[in-house]
Amino acid sequence: MARPHIEFVQTQNVDWQDQRDGTQIKRLNWDAQDDEETFLIRYPAGFTRDDLGPEDRAEEYFVLDGSITIGGLVRGYHAYGFTPRGESAGTRASEAGATMIVFRYGRSDPNSVIGVSEALVVDALDAPWDMRPSDDRIAHLRLTRKVLRLGPNDSSRTFLLLGLPHGMPAHKEMPAEIHDHFEEMFMLQGEMWTPEGLIRPGAYFYRPPEIVHGPHVSVGGFFQIMRAGANYVRTTWTNPVPLPIGQTYAPKIPDGTPESWTREYKAPPAF
Q1: pLDDT category, 221, cuts 50, 70, 90?
Q2: Contact assessment for residue 200 and residue 10, using Cβ atoms and an 8 Å cutoff
Q3: Residue 185 pLDDT more than 80?
């Protein structure tokens, strides 16, 4: 079994689930065979938890709001961390509460185990932007990146991706993309037009390898956290197709998904 293709869901439509330790989660994607998964987790104010010992799966986290102390280290807004399988993540406590997105690796992943991967903490606010130009075929998005982690053996990349406003090409058609590795995204800010509709803050997708996707354009610009199944994104391109501006929401959702996940999200007014 592999992780299902989701493109895309607005996580505002996913219900919070209460956990025994007082936290709440929104599970966004899960491989039941290997327990690879992605979820949002909300820690309540006053939360404390003892060290649970060595992790049975590697874990990446990114703080979306609030502040949490992990292993004695305070992790605030847009802090990032990685704990390999077999290493302890330490105690956890949050005085005012916190929300994070968590990416857990499968138990059989050979590149996420202690001794192959090392624990890592990054304050994304201080990390440098990589402003080198992208492929000419997506130059209209004017992309820049902050790489948070490169996995060993060309296994993964976790990074922040920024596209400037007015990211519109001069022509009405452009090619779509195909990668030989997975891609995963959570939208932090902004918006982006896709063939599945308009992605807004809180949007999530997971694409297995070889999925045709795009083209993408953005009037207002966007800010995302992304993961890829390689250190550097490898792309092949299709023949040009029409731009998706104004596309009706039509998500690709696996069978059995709650109906609420497929509701079109009505964002609150900006003014």
Answers
A1: very high
A2: yes
A3: yes
φ, ψ (nearest 5 deg) of residue 161: -125, 125
d(CA 235, CA 229): 12
Do 143 and 134 meet the contact criterion of CB atoms below 8 Å apart?
Answer: yes
Mean pLDDT, the chain, rounded, equals 95
* Confidence category of residue 264, pLDDT binned at 50, 70, 90: confident
Two tokens, residue 72: 């004695």
Q: Residue 1 above 80 pLDDT? A: no
Tokens encoding 224: 């995302």
Measured distance CA(170)–CA(228) in Å, rounded:
29
Cα 144 to Cα 29: distance, rounded to the nearest angstrom: 27
In 3D space, the residue among 253, 195, 205, 202 whose CA is nearest the CA of residue 227 turns out to be: 205
List the Cα angle 247/7/16 in 5-degree steps. 115
Contact 47, 23 (CB under 8 A): yes
Residue 21 tokens read as 């330790």
**Domain annotation for the chain: domains and CATH numbers:** 7-123 (2.60.120.10), 136-247 (2.60.120.10)
